[in-house]
Amino acid sequence: MERTSAMEQSADFVSAVIEMIENVGFPIFISLFLLYRMEAKLNAVVEAVNQLTAVLSQKYH
Question: Where on the phi/psi map is residue 2: left (φ > 0), alpha (ψ -120 to 50), or beta?
Answer without folding.
Answer: beta
